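Predict the 3D structure for this chain.
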Amino acid sequence: MEQLIPVVMIVAMVAFVLIKQIGKLTTNLDTFADESSYDRYAKFSAVIQDHIREIKQSLDSSKTPSERPFKLIEGKNEEEALELLSNFIRKLIFFETMVAKKKSSKEIEADLFELLSHLDDFLKEYCVDGEALSDALRETLLEAYEQLN
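Done. Predicted structure below.
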């Protein structure tokens, strides 16, 4: 019985140290996984911004690109449309900043989904052939997202 108490104490200490080390290891893995997902969201955000800038450039009548794939529906307010696109870009810049790291991956995905839904609605409401443009943009963004994984 005298030998049992020291053995139990040593086993308890070893178990405690193992539990602490496993906890540190899993915390480091979670941090690494979160960092890579934030980088992926930041890169995807940049891709979306590029597409929105292309739409904005095409809709802006003060800039005359040779070919305008995105055309404003007649009667729609150009300034309002350009302001909405600028707001989308401002929201996307958030995903490239350190502030976004305070949110979980699920929250960021939800925010990105909401923004993309609004962009989809924008194309349908403000652009000629908005449904087709929206479908094409959706496909392009899906391919870009899959390439980031």
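The chain is about 75% helix and 0% strand.
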